[in-house]
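User: I'm curious what two different proteins look like when written out as structure tokens. Can you demonstrate?

Assistant: Sure. I'll show them one after the other, since each token string lines up with its own sequence. Here's the first protein:
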Amino acid sequence: MEKYVEYWNTGEFEEIEEVLHPDFELRMTPEFIPEKGIDAFKESIIKWRSAYPDFHIDIEELIYDSDKVAALWTISATNTGVGTHPPTGKHIEVRGMSIIHFEGGKIRDEWIASNSLFWMTQLGFKLIPPKTDSNK
């Protein structure tokens, strides 16, 4: 787990084939569509770290079972790079949870759940309700 979190926190992928299962899948809120494979995982982290160069995960709690781990974590990061939107320069702190499954002693998948709306509002984005007959 320490090495896995280090990949997120540094963007360096030393010994990744020893940590991640070859069929690794990363699934994130809101849709949990799988990003499949080690190369897709690396690309995802590179994209996150490009938009948020100081991206850092602090693990607050880990609960282990025989073939899985539940993690409670906090991400802190500053949006100074280009990602899915232009950089805002704003700092975010978002808590979330992950369930990580193991197979053959390697991480098989991670399911990440966090509050995307809270993340975006910290960046300065606003949720605007659709126009209806009652609020025209």
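Here's a second, unrelated protein for contrast:
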Amino acid sequence: MANTTAAKTSVRDLMHDRFCRADGVMTVDQAIQLLRDEDAYALLVDKRDPDDEYGLVSMADISAKILAVDRAPERVNLFEIMTKPALCVRAGMRPAYCARLLHRFRLGLALVQDADGEVIGLIDHRALVMGLAHPEH
């Protein structure tokens, strides 16, 4: 029998806001410093115009696309390594559906948007799993 509290849990209940907004022309070196200063997990790369899409740079992106291939972070801009368009999920989405979506696209995290399309947080596998372990969230 399913836990009724867990059925009422949404992505909004599990998301976190440990991300920074950045411009795509920022260098990876500058972005790493921003992540350190803000104690953040990822960078939301702002849209260039209202018809554009958000970009996302995770720690895994920096590790795989800069560190692992020995690129100079001061010579690479975020737009070169970002995921764009970034996967966005509704804040009201059920966690199980979000987990399926992340798994299907082999992603570690997604942006969370409110009803107006504003990015209000990030959701990742850790948050989803911890929410499962503590369904009162």
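A detail about the second structure: Residues 4-133 form a domain with the CBS-domain fold (CATH 3.10.580.10).
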